[in-house]
Amino acid sequence: MGKTLVLAEKPSVGREIGRVLSCKRKSDGALYGDKYVVTWALGHLVTLANPESYHERYKSWNMNDLPMLPEKMKLVVIKKTSRQFNVVKNLMNSKDITEIVIATDAGREGELVARWIIEKARVKKPIKRLWISSQTDKAIKDGFKNLKDGKAYWNLYRSAFARSKADWYVGLNLTRALTCKHNVQLSAGRVQTPTLNMIVQREEEINKFVPAKFWEIKCSAKNVEFNLLGKDGNSRIFNKEKRDSLLDKLKNEDGVVKSVEEKIKKINAPYAYDLTTLQIDANNKYGFSAKRTLQIMQQLYEHHKAVTYPRTDSKYISKDIVPTLKERLETITSSSYKGFARALLRTKLNISSRFVDDKKVTDHHAIIPTEQTVFLNDLSSDERKIYDLIVKRFLEVLSKPCEYKEIKVKLSVKDELFNVTYKNIINQGWKQIGSDNEDIKNEQIKFKKDDKVKIDKVFYNEGSTKPPSRYTEALLLADMENPKRFVKESKMKETLSSVGGIGTVATRADIIEKLYNTYYIENKDGKIHPTSKGKQLVELVPEDIKSPILTAKWEMELTGISKGNVKEIKFTENIKNYTKELVEKVKKDNVTFKHDNITGEKCPDCGSNLLKVNNKQGEMLVCKDRECGYKRMLNRATNARCPECHKKMIMVGEGDKKMFICNNCGFKEKLTSWNKKKEGKSNQMNKKQVKNYMNKMKKDADKPLNNAFADSLSKFKF
């Protein structure tokens, strides 16, 4: 009797599936059992071929060779993981294997990982699909009981392949065209360039902003402050004469209570987490980058089995998950939230359409805790922070709305209306969970309709308008998810909403990282600034590649391909024609690129001037000549705190000359001296340090080696 081969996306997942399927015998790159053989990829084992694979002339970058539009895209095995590919290929073609189960991540990119391997291995065997949203034993067992026919996901694969080809055509051609035109390593793409454009536009708004002074008139009565209601609904006064005129009019006048309005209001709990909103909250609360949050989520999902599938764009769950909610509540062991979970178990859960809606669940439902008990001591500090965010949100969603009475008091003084609003709590509901929610305090109402009120004083507060705040990763993610304000056409606004913005939940973190790595943006104290290179790129690229509309149109068509409503070949031909137009625009453009970060230092390899650039790691010098590729760190950002002012320090120098420097207060100390002091405090790791070190080693071992997005970056010298 033949066996079933199960293909997971990475070793850690493969080991867990193998354990559940009783595959106990280990061999090179696989686990063997009586019925199943489990093997794995390392991220992508197969990728699209480089341009030079199609023709010898593409080995050198030449404008005359563009555009590159091969008819049939070639697949190649990634060299650094070719050994594992051969293991998988041999197993797929083994006579003992009668069918293949795709168990890669349940999404468009996971489908691509598996299908490319199967295609490159040239295997023609029955295919089934494991489609699960969590990595618990129960989910894996249930998934294998309900395997889907692989044919049902063929269109999803065609969609993924079409996206990959389109990014190859547009990205590689536009990148080569810009680089050849300006002799500077430049790259552009249909997601990264609109994202960069948002940052550049924000910087322009900040630079052009002129602050305006304003005043807000208030009056006090019975120790209560009332605010003047502007005739146009705006309480700010921008005219000094108008301010003074109103103050004179109101001076020494008394007031009459015109109305006291009472309304019962509700504040619904926030929606459950999808990946982007979780990344936003993690950045706002803990300063985690989008990439870091996703890495932590992968550990919580794969290793700890604490949460459901992370790469989801849905904030809803389907009805079939509802029966499991109480079991999930029972597994919450966090001391901060255990009491709330137990209280919910004793009540009727708040199951509303804001949480349960089959029509709004995409490939995967919202991120929620699994049914598996989590031992909190097994989590690292950062894992605990993210897990707590998810648990807290889960409890809030299942809780009743916050209910309060809103009382608005309007006061007339010399025909001018003032108001004050009270909020008195009736039922805290979800707001009782967590201490960081805004408190609504009960207040004693001191006024009744038609009361005559003595005004103690009339005064004003002065302020000035503020420029738009610079992007943080949280704000940037929010605009990537909802970029409607960057688009004028109402139809395109609707399109962007329907496809979930630009990029996907799985790729946005990589896009932001790429902008850092290509020196288009830099991070200063948590704020994102565009570099000169980034600003210039936005000026150099064709106009439509800067707009979110392009990616919205692509995603609509790709979704159509995945549903069988759009033909892949038509989409691809349109992309080829579009690529021709882009290259032609670059060729005809007369704008030039200027370096404004040239140093006086020469490259030791080729003699060209070196450029000073910043990235997340610190400050570095890179060679101006794109063909050279020389780079050298000047200083590195560290987590070491200055003993004087407690700010993070940088490290400069090489070898024995390495030194910590604090840019805030000027403190300096050699690394050797610093280390001696540390050794004097503790000559051995404590238990927590050992545990954190072992966790790091495990993460490094389980980390996927290949990523299609990262692999595409390796083709360029930045």
TrEMBL record:
SUPFAM superfamilies: Prokaryotic type I DNA topoisomerase. Keywords: DNA-binding, Isomerase, Magnesium, Metal-binding, Topoisomerase. The active site is at Y309. It catalyses: ATP-independent breakage of single-stranded DNA, followed by passage and rejoining. Residues 187-192 are annotated as: Interaction with DNA. One of its GO terms (biological process) is DNA recombination. Its cofactor is Mg(2+). Mg(2+) binds at E9, D105. Releases the supercoiling and torsional tension of DNA, which is introduced during the DNA replication and transcription, by transiently cleaving and rejoining one strand of the DNA duplex. Introduces a single-strand break via transesterification at a target site in duplex DNA. The scissile phosphodiester is attacked by the catalytic tyrosine of the enzyme, resulting in the formation of a DNA-(5'-phosphotyrosyl)-enzyme intermediate and the expulsion of a 3'-OH DNA strand. The free DNA strand then undergoes passage around the unbroken strand, thus removing DNA supercoils. Belongs to the type IA topoisomerase family. This is DNA topoisomerase 3. It comes from Vallitalea guaymasensis. The lineage of its organism: Bacteria, Bacillati, Bacillota, Clostridia, Lachnospirales.
